[in-house]
Amino acid sequence: MSWARLYDLLGFAASFVLAAVLGRQAMLDGSGLALVWPAAGVAAAWLAANGWSRWTWLDAVVLFALSAAVNTLTGASPGLAFGLAFATVLQTLVFGLLIMRWCPGWWGFGTEPPPGVERVRDLGYLAAAALLAAVASAVVGPAAVLSVADTSWKEVVSWVLRNGTGVLAVFPLALTARHLTRASDPQRGPAPVGPTRGRGPVELAALALASAVTAWLVFFVNSSLPIPFLVLAVSAWTGARFSPFVAVVHAILLSGAATVATVLGMGPFTLIEDPATRALVLQAYVAVVVVLTLALSAGRSEVLTLNDRLAEQAAMVRTIVDTMADGVSVIDARGRLVLRNPAAQALVGDPRRDAGGRVDVDAYGLRHVDGRPLAPEENPVALALSGRTIEKEDLVVRNALVPGGRMLEVTARPLPGTDPPLVVVVFHDVTAERRERDELASFAGVVAHDLLNPLTVIDGWSDALLEEARAGTPVDAETQMHRLDRIQRAAQRMQHLISDLLAYTTARDRDINPVRVELDPLVGDIARARVESSRVRGLPEPVISVDPDLPAVLAEPVLLRQVVDNLIGNSIKYVAPGARPEISVRARRAHSAVGPMVELDVSDNGIGIPAGQHDQVFDSFHRAHHDGYRGTGLGLSIVKRIVERHGGIARARDNHDGGTTMTVSFPAARLVDGPIEPPAQEQ
Amino acid sequence: MARVLIVEDDSDVRDWIAHCLLREGHELRGVPDGAHALTLVRDEPGYRPDLVLMDYALPDTDGVALLAELAAVWEGLPAVFVTVQWTGEIIARIEQTGHERVAKPFDADDLRAAVRRALAPGGHRA
Fold first, then answer.
1. Per-residue model confidence as pLDDT tens digits over A65-121
2. Residue A11 forms beta bridges with which residues?
3. Which of helix, strand or coil describes residue A328?
4. Rounded to a whole number, what is the distance in Å from the CA of A450 to chain B's nearest CA?
5. Are A489 and B104 within 8 A, CB to CB?
6. Who wins on pLDDT, A682 or A554?
7. By the 8 A CB rule, do A83 and A140 touch?
8. Of A17, A134, A267, B105, which one is least surrounded by beta carbons within 10 A?
9. What are A303-313's pLDDT values in tens digits?
10. How far is the alpha carbon of A489 from chain B, nearest alpha carbon, in Å?
């Protein structure tokens, strides 16, 4: 046995002796039975507190011995004392068995005791267990008394009432006391003392005063006035406003006052001459006061707990709704906003409301995906109010807050069980998602188109060649060469497109690990390679002049080379037929929001960019020139992607004397020579 | 023999289409885009093709829109769309016109058959 268990045993034993001695003092003359028996409650708490263990037999033996001893010492005969002791143990065991089954949380409450009887249903279980245990013990107890006194059915009923009430009043007190001393977190749940809301200490003092005055008037002033109902008033006050702990203490004190007054021959119960009847009525009074006060208090406690839980859940739901990225609005049948989270406001704006708070739904500027305004009867709120559910419908919202429009996936449905009806509308922003989807579809379409065109050429001309070969049709060598040339050119186009697509993906996904790159040798290498390429192909050799003082930049070398090569390659390709490309490459230092930059200009004498297409040339698959100039339409979009991933910008402008200047910027290398100039002015 | 206008921006594809149709003895004209086709309408009032054979994805317009403009001048003009079928929407749009459609890459015989159907009386189902 542990020391804690031993202290428990000694504590309960002492409490039991005290309660039993007190009970034995409350005895009417000529009766072998006490008027009240709080010891029954102490015994019940004793057993319940420890639960079943290998030491339970010791609890039972000590309980029996103490009960017999107290009864003997307070004047009971040995036979009566043993009978009463046996009845006490029997009642305790029956109560324990029932509580263990009905309220398992109370059984073995030594580890984590609940704060008290906090639910009306629990009070019902407690009262039923106390009553049944008292009835069980009544089979033994009154029989023992019968052996020494003239007993009747009244004594039997009286036994049941006083023992049952003893358990009913003391057990909750033990629960709360145990909770306050042993629970790991006694602050959890409603406060065990005082009202949860309102002026607790002041009200408690007022209650104490009122109760004392009432008890004095009702029980200690010998008055013939029929005023015992005053007890009901203070009991109802206690139960309705205070915790179960205060309620049970109040009921015990009032019952004690009635008992003491009756034992002293005072109060309304002394008007009953027959002692047995007097005891019975007093015990019935005590039972009613205890049950009434506890029932009111448990009901109040239950309501407060539910309110707190509701408030917690409401706060939790509100927090979740407020932190959602999706917009949520709840609107009533009159069009008034009941709830709206910050995301809803951000997504659809703050609509106009009239004096009655009614939202002007049309002011949201909702439209169909094809741009048609939504008719009033098509509005999701109106549809949901008519009982329909709108599931993930794409709509566009365009109003003062979102003038550019925003694509929303809207779900609206009536909230079940609301009267008057409420509807909930959820907005999910799908603008970027839909744009990406459309772009992907468009991208795939262009790729398919640009691959299938050369494939058509290869397939068609090779079919023609095959057919003619099979048929033995004579075809001159020049025609054959011409056809094979077309096939080869188509295959090269496919190869270029696939290469550009890979470069495009690389430009988007490749990790950028910028290092210091000297532009001078890089541009020189590319220029020499391009000149050589034109010479080999028999084209006019380009004249490329490179500024000798090109600074160093911070860039991913492979991607930077691709940018410069694309720009110089475009300058060579897009010249008038037969013209010699003249290209100049210069650089200057500049400032930008991300720090010092190097702006690289590639100027040419080419055919230029058609008016209004200077931004579009950087779009995927945009081709400014179709006649005679083949290309995938990806080159400049690759350039733009690479440059932007380095924090720079890419732009195109016309030269004053014809041709184009393409400008790209990259971060300047840390160890630059010379001062950084202020941001360059646009020409 | 029929006068066929080919609207196709890819010159190699345009030449291949021409090669396929020349065997049938058709008289052919080729333009790379919608603007050139409309220029033809404007500058050569005496020219009226019996059939237009066009790509859907043209650099400056789409085939269905261009056909509407051409049909406003050349009433009842039959057409064959030679195109990449990449979305159901585009296929549906072409089919709504009731004209022939040939998917790239195409077999020469299939193209010639489509042209014959389009030129036949009642070839336009719209």
1. 998 998 888 777 888 888 888 888 999 999 988 988 888 877 776 556 566 788 889
2. none
3. strand
4. 9
5. no
6. A554
7. yes
8. A17
9. 988 999 999 99
10. 9
Q: What is the pTM of this model?
A: 0.56
C-alpha A432/C-alpha A444 separation (Å) is: 18
Sheet strands (E) in A504-581: 515-518, 543-546, 552-555
The amino acid at residue A534 is S
Q: Are A159 and A104 in contact (CB under 8 A)?
A: no
Mutate to test the interface with B, among A453, A479, A632 (most CBs of B within 10 A): A453
Give the rounded percent of residues in chain A with a pLDDT score beyond 70: 90
Averaged pLDDT for residues A537-554? 89
Q: What is the mean pLDDT of residues A141-167?
A: 74
User: Considering CB atoms only, which of A457, A463, A623 is closest to B59?
Assistant: A623
Strand, coil or helix: A1? coil
Q: What is the pLDDT of residue B39?
A: 93
Residue found by looking up tokens 């208090």 in the block: A297
* All domains in chain B, ordered by first residue: 3-119 (3.40.50.2300)
What single-letter DSSP state applies at residue A542? P
Nearest CA in chain B to A631: B10
B32 to chain A: closest CA residue: A627
Distance CA A323, CA A342 (A): 8
Of B9, B12, B57, the CB nearest to A489: B12
Nearest C-alpha in A relative to B8 = A453
Q: What is the pLDDT of residues A41-65, one digit of tens each?
A: 988 888 888 777 777 888 889 889 9
Nearest CB to A626: which of B59, B84, B105?
B59
Min Cα separation A469/chain B (Å): 16
Q: Residue window 36-95, chain B: list those with CB within 8 Å of chain A.
A: 57, 59, 84, 86-87
The complex's ipTM works out to: 0.87
- Distance of residue B31 Cα from the nearest chain A Cα, in angstroms: 10
**Contact assessment for residue B9 and residue B58, using Cβ atoms and an 8 Å cutoff:** yes
CA distance A155 to A158: 5
CA distance A39 to A17: 8
Strand pairing partners for A651?
Answer: A663
- Beta strands B51-54 and B27-31, pairing class: unpaired
pLDDT digits (tens, 9 = 90+) for A499-520: 888 888 888 777 888 899 999 9
Cβ contact, residue pair B87, A461, below 8 Å: no
Taking an 8 Å cut-off on Cβ atoms, the answer to whether B107 and A463 are in contact is yes
Candidate from A441, A444, A456 with C-beta closest to B16: A456
**Residue A657 gets which letter from DSSP?**
T
Query: Quick check: helix, strand or coil at residue A289?
Result: helix
Give the pairing of strands B51-54 and B79-83: parallel
Is residue A66 within 8 A of residue A20, CB to CB? The reply is yes
Strand partners, B83: B103
